[in-house]
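On clarity, I found the account of how folds are encoded harder to follow than it need be. What matters is that the chain and its backbone geometry are given together, residue for residue. The format is easy to grasp once an entry is in front of the reader. For illustration, here is how one protein appears when written out as sequence plus structure tokens.
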Amino acid sequence: MVIHRLQPNGALPRGLWQYVRMARFLTLSDVAETLNISSAQTYALVRSGELPAIKVGGRGQWRVEAQALEQYIENMYAQTREFVSTHPFGKDDPLSDSSD
């Protein structure tokens, strides 16, 4: 499944409307592809409760609501901003070269 981001004005890039499949629920494979992580990592996020999901059908297939994935991504951006602001990259960072 290919997911296209909307442009800032809320529109899809020209000519893509015919290709968009607006799915409410995503498979764990879809989520893994979107986040560029392994299926095992996706399963761990779901099982830990960090990424909300449901089990459906007689075989208990996991599904993640598209909105839940978007909320998870937004939460990760917020956590990253907080981390960066409390751990500034500078002279105290072991990766920086203070000899310049």
